[in-house]
Amino acid sequence: MLPHSTICYYPPQFILRNPVVSGVKKAFNNGFEVAVIAYTIKNHQELASQLGEESWKFHKALKRHFRSVIEKEIDKEDMIVLHDYYSDSLSLFMRIDHNRYCISEIDVKMKKILREAESRIFQEYPTVQPIFDTGFIFIDKSVDSVHGAVLKAHQQAFAMAEKRIQTEFNEMVYEMKRIIAQQNIKLLAQPIIDVATKEIRAWEMLTRGPEGTALESPLQLFSVARQTNTLYDLEMIVLRKTLDQITSTGCRDDIFINFTPITLGNSRFVRDLKNMMQSYDTIQPNQITLEITERDSIEGIENFIYNIKVLRGMGIKIAVDDTGAGYASLNTISEIMPDVIKIDRSVIENIDKNSVKESMLKGLLLVAREAGSTVIAEGIENEHEASVLSRNKVELAQGYFYARPGLLKTV
């Protein structure tokens, strides 16, 4: 077989006749995103020389092991297709349900699949040691042609995996650096509502990339930032722009700003935040709530717990997002005893029709009471869901039923 480097970088056109495009279209029509996850063998040519005529058997075994692990790790309905367009790579097209997945979780899942697949491959081929690169990208929903978007995303996913000179990867690094240099992001604000009085009590700031581009989507923007090592700079721009908006609007409500555990655990974060806030003397630290987003485990992030203690000592409040969506958020609650617990949409959706979900809500309210945390229910979309919050005395909520994201304003 030809090595990857001798083949056109785009996948062959038979992609248009297989289930990929129809699966992507179906996912889009149902309101989901689709990620392309690339696995490439870095030492492919070396292995081909080692294996000789047995190379095709090894590649067949590799795909079989990956498929077996993926079927164990990913829900059946989320796996669109696994393809081996080239002899040195595999492509997983995966439907992303926002109620269950986030950027960091995809990253963790991608690496977990790789570790287990490598272990199984080693058991069958103990003398063969493939070295893998991985990367992922989301398919752009804004373009007219799904076919073209699939081809483009496939190319970008491999660029992310291989990080080769003069490829799409460098173009994306350049684009992210340009966004950061120009601070070319837009912030929207979604109100957090008092369930009893319907009054606005706080705002959550939401980020959008450059309008009209593939990076306008926060999912795409932050996934590219993570893989191009620009995540910290991007999140600090979000912080500065938020402080600018608080000052220009004169808003006195609490403001929630999203941060990944990676940024919150950065050794520079507390110093940089203090320096930044010195320029905004009208903003009190107790007006700011830092919301720990994504379902990353905080284990292994060296400065995370220390930074949280320092921030709370300054008067800044801490919120844990996605509570109820998985183990990581519950573990974070026990580690840091947050000021605010945000209950994930996956618990709230159709809660009026599901007694088990209401029992989960009651359990999380008990956890919050034990931790001394205020509760905010996320993703309320109708009056029936809101009524369950009322009867369970949930104090605060946000969602389209109350208000869509818009401009930050003072009421």
From TrEMBL:
<dbReference type="InterPro" id="IPR001633">
    <property type="entry name" value="EAL_dom"/>
</dbReference>
<dbReference type="InterPro" id="IPR050706">
    <property type="entry name" value="Cyclic-di-GMP_PDE-like"/>
</dbReference>
<feature type="domain" description="EAL">
    <location>
        <begin position="169"/>
        <end position="411"/>
    </location>
</feature>
<dbReference type="Pfam" id="PF00563">
    <property type="entry name" value="EAL"/>
</dbReference>
<dbReference type="GO" id="GO:0071111">
    <property type="term" value="F:cyclic-guanylate-specific phosphodiesterase activity"/>
</dbReference>
<dbReference type="InterPro" id="IPR035919">
    <property type="entry name" value="EAL_sf"/>
</dbReference>
<protein>
    <submittedName>
        <fullName>EAL domain/GGDEF domain protein</fullName>
    </submittedName>
</protein>
